[in-house]
Design brief:
Blueprint (H helix, E strand, L loop, with lengths): L1 H5 L8 E3 L11 H10 L5 E4 L2 H8 L6 E4 L17 H5 L6 E5 L8 H9 L9 E5 L5 H11 L5 E5 L4 H5 L4 E4 L8 H8 L3 E6 L4 H4 L7 E4 L3 H12 L2 H11 L2 H4 L2 H24 L2
Helix pairs in contact: 5-6, 5-10
């Protein structure tokens, strides 16, 4: 917004990008006012999901809106091994459900803990591991203690090598109340994990093809999430099938496609700006 204000009298195109979901991410009355006043000055607005694009088009009538989803995050270390259908066949089954992200309200880990608690006694040899740090660590630990699940639920903290952490689990759960675009889900699928996600706004339904490469459950429904946990815990063949299909995420959300889309948009903006200048 400040860039748009600063370049108001300059004849240069400005491309802006929303990295969260404005339907759920409050920025205050002043910044909301400035967003609606300044965004129409932009050459284009880039968002990460079709849902956010549809929302923005309601009040941003004349500005070009492009959907450019994130790419699958690249491994941070060369030590991270490649994952393939063949490596999945020999992966050790450890009976660990994984969650990963900031320990904050919007990530919904309290809902995941509650859902896991409803099936924990039926699957006493399974564990839930939620990696990350955040303001709700203490309250989440209190929830675990209150449920008496200290032996089955662990909060190991932040990890510098998420891929290696993901490789230690059997499947992954994204219990978010809302998302901007869930990189953790992309990452988990790229490591060959069967995944469950709330069908929240926005992102999961544009990533998971439910019952094909993962499972979507109604947003916020702890009972439905518990049933999905039970399905995957109790069905090794389903976990394996979803895991293999999940590997295709690296092609659907490749880094090459991501940068190509950005390069095309920037090139288009430059070309149109130069044409406009030559015509004056």
């Amino acid at each position: 917004m400040l860039t748009l204000l600063a370049t108001g009298k300059l004849r240069c195109p400005v491309i802006i990008s929303e990295r969260s979901d404005p339907r759920h991410h409050p920025i205050g009355r002043l910044w909301s006012f400035l967003r609606k006043r300044t965004y129409p000055r932009a050459y284009a607005l880039v968002v990460q999901t079709q849902g956010v694009a549809d929302f923005c088009r309601q009040w941003l009538k004349s500005t070009q809106i492009e959907v450019i989803p994130n790419a699958v995050p690249l491994p941070r270390s060369p030590e991270v091994p490649a994952v393939s259908r063949e490596t999945l066949e020999v992966r050790t089954r450890v009976k660990i459900v994984l969650g990963m992200g900031r320990l904050s309200h919007e990530k919904g880990f309290d809902l995941l803990i509650e859902a896991f608690s409803r099936v924990a006694s039926e699957f006493p040899d399974w564990k839930l591991q939620i990696s990350g740090e955040g303001p709700l660590r203490e309250s989440l630990q209190q929830q675990i203690n209150h449920l008496g699940l200290q032996e089955q639920i662990d909060l190991p903290g932040w990890t510098s090598q998420p891929e290696l952490q993901l490789d230690q689990g059997d499947f992954f759960v994204l219990p978010s109340r809302y998302e901007g675009f869930p990189n953790a889900l992309l990452q988990a699928m790229s490591r060959g994990l069967a995944c469950i996600s709330f069908d929240c706004e926005s992102g999961p339904a544009e990533i998971i093809q439910s019952e094909t490469d993962g499972l979507l459950v109604p947003a916020g429904s702890v009972s439905e999430l518990a049933q999905a946990l039970k399905r995957l815990m109790g069905d090794d063949s389903l976990r394996r099938r979803l895991a293999v299909e999940a590997l295709q995420i690296t092609e659907r959300f490749s880094a090459e496609a991501y940068f190509q889309h950005w390069e095309q948009l920037i090139g288009q903006a430059i070309t149109e700006s130069e044409t406009a200048c030559n015509n004056t």
